[in-house]
Design goal:
Helix content is 42%, strand content 19%. With 327 residues, it is α/β, with parallel strands linked by helices. The protein binds beta-D-galactofuranose (GZL).
């Protein structure tokens, strides 16, 4: 059963009174925290600090744990899967009550998640999906990246009247957001034969690599025919904007730019006329994650999938919306 954030509260209440709506999942045995009344201990393996989105996500998680008096053992993997696996194994050894993680890529988690299951520690997946069976975790809370890709393509098709040569800056290879955003974007492009991706490269979700990739695009004859850019996140778009300006072109005019996340820097770039649209991907999921932690520790069932609701913001609303932005 897929729940949207707004529905989550109702669903949790419903589930709390035993309503069976949707696929209830074994929330795993109660953590030690529930029994002895001692502080809940959560081990969280975060991907890194690669983008404004990630920084806001970490802040949301750390501040929510502190607010609830939950002990958070936090590990920053610097975007390396082997560091995440090491952290997960150390959480098993520490016998934490709940393990939470955001997998940097989809593949390669089977063995360590089996070790966690054998240790009887419930897992909450945050933000990105691992390629494992749903029985390996209690719930997955994060955005619908395919829909984010569709929204970016729909906006661009309208803006470009269905005709564009598009450059694409992909996120981390093998990561759920990069795979799914591309999938959603290309699904909509199939309805617009005049829209085509002429060059595509990964910028690994960072500003520096986004700039580098854009510089390479603009050095190629095909790249110079482009009049649009789809960046899988705002940080790469902001790097690309620098490269476009250094090449003597006008970002937001010569090259129309749509990206994803909705960080403050994207709104500022839209107000400056250098970015045209950002599709929101909400990083502030700390409250929902710790609602799920407390439900798991209390032995309450949870929906298998909780989707975060998001919007789309273009230049026409950027100045009005900026004061409301929380990240
Ligand atoms: C999306 C998240 C992505 C962001 C990037 O939920 O995993 O990772 O879009 C971040 O900014 O690096």
């Amino acid at each position: 059963m897929k729940l949207h954030l707004g529905m989550m509260v109702a669903a949790s209440l419903a589930l709390a009174v035993g309503c069976s709506g949707g696929k209830d999942q074994d929330a795993g045995q109660e953590g030690a925290g529930a029994k002895s009344g001692k502080k809940i201990v959560v081990g969280f393996s975060q991907i890194g600090a690669e983008s404004g989105w990630r920084t806001a996500n970490t802040e949301s998680i750390k501040s929510e744990a502190a607010k609830r008096g939950i002990e958070l053992r936090f590990s920053d993997a610097q975007q390396k899967q082997e560091n995440q696996i090491k952290a997960l194994r150390s959480f098993i050894a520490q016998k934490v009550d709940v393990i939470m993680f955001s997998p940097v890529v989809e593949a390669g988690w089977g063995p360590v998640m089996k070790e966690i299951k054998d240790a009887g520690i419930p897992v909450i997946v945050a933000d990105r999906r691992p390629d494992v069976g749903e029985d390996m975790y209690v719930t997955f809370i994060g955005s619908d990246f395919v829909e984010e890709g569709r929204r970016a393509a729909r906006w661009l098709a309208k803006k470009m009247n269905g005709k564009a040569n598009i450059l694409e800056l992909q996120g981390t290879p093998g990561s759920a957001p990069a795979i799914d955003r591309k999938k959603g974007f290309e699904e909509v492009l199939r309805e617009h034969p005049g829209m085509k991706i002429v060059l595509s490269q990964s910028g690994d979700f960072t500003r520096a690599k986004g700039k580098e990739a854009m510089e390479a695009f603009l050095k190629s004859p095909v790249g110079r025919t482009a009049n649009a850019l789809f960046a899988h996140n705002d940080d790469m778009a902001l790097g690309a904007i620098q490269a476009i300006e250094e090449a003597g072109l006008k970002p937001g005019k010569d090259i129309i730019i749509v990206s994803i996340d909705g960080v403050r820097g994207a709104f500022e770039a839209m107000i400056a006329g250098k970015l045209n649209c950002t599709v929101e991907c909400n990083p502030i999921i700390g409250p929902q994650l710790f609602d799920a932690v407390e439900a798991v520790v209390a032995g309450k069932p949870l929906p298998k999938r909780i989707v975060v609701d998001e919007g789309v913001f273009d230049q026409s609303v950027a100045a009005k919306e900026l004061p409301n932005r929380k990240y």
